[in-house]
Amino acid sequence: MDTEKKNNIKEVIEWIICIVIAVVLALLVRHYVFTPTVVRQVSMKTTLEQGDRLILNRWCITTNQEIKRGDIITFEAPSVLDKEDIVFDKENPVAIYNYEPSNIFSKFMYYVLEFSKTSYIKRVIAVAGDNILIKNGKVYLNGELLEEEYLAEGVYTERTGAFYDITVPEGYVFAMGDNRMQSEDCRVFGCIPIDKIESKVAFRFWPFSKFGEV
């Protein structure tokens, strides 16, 4: 093989290596540091509108930072969402997650590339040890009326599911959408495990008129 062909092959290999490294780095950043997303649901209206573009902070999850009340988070949707199929257990009021990809390839597609994976975006209302009570359209946290300035005028909180008077277990959070009348959330399917939380909303970058922290 002449020198020119060897150089051409070497150059091609170098390009392939560079592309592979770039793809791997991009996936690592997307999965562990931050990633952009588009709001497609109405459950956080008017805080977040459909079409809003956000940057999600995944580094806080990677480094096990504390999830606090008021944080807007994204999390993997529970496996069971139909109210008719959910068994209410006041002693263990948690969402059901029973889907597990069958092999390494499907795990990579589901957890890393997130193909066919559904995620929800909601606001954390209560953390482990907190008692939540919903009555008369209001939310009570540990016996005190929760002041929710982020809700639009006229929005009230219905008992859309069975989880309206519970204590959040250790390792879980209770989250709801700001658009309470059009939000399928922990009232229906129960508390979310910390390890199913994917990110916290860092800031909105579009529309530019709303650029900044949410």
Task: Provide a descriptive summary of the structure in words.
The chain is α+β, with helices and mostly antiparallel strands and 214 residues long. It has one domain (33-210): Umud Fragment, subunit A (Ribbon), CATH 2.10.109. It contains four helices and eleven strands, in the order H-E-E-H-E-H-E-E-E-E-E-E-H-E-E. The strands form two sheets. The protein has a seven-stranded antiparallel beta sheet with strand order 1-2-11-3-4-9-10. The chain has a four-stranded antiparallel beta sheet with strand order 7-6-5-8, with no helix packed on it. Strand 6 and strand 7 form a beta hairpin. The longest helix has 30 residues, at 3-32.
List the topology elements.
Blueprint: H1 3-32, E1 34-38, E2 53-57, H2 59-62, E3 72-76, H3 104-112, E4 119-127, E5 131-135, E6 138-141, E7 144-145, E8 165-167, E9 172-176, H4 186-189, E10 192-193, E11 197-206
Antiparallel strand pairs: 1-2, 2-11, 3-4, 3-11, 4-9, 5-6, 5-8, 6-7, 9-10
CATH topology annotation: Umud Fragment, subunit A
Mean pLDDT: 93
Proportion of strand residues: 25-35%
Q: Summarize the biggest pleated sheet.
A: 7 strands, antiparallel
User: Nearest-angstrom radius of gyration?
Assistant: 21 Å
- Find the structural class using helix and strand composition: alpha+beta
Separate helix tally = 4
Overall shape: elongated
Core attributes:
214 residues, alpha+beta, Umud Fragment, subunit A, 7-stranded antiparallel beta sheet, 4-stranded antiparallel beta sheet, 4 helices
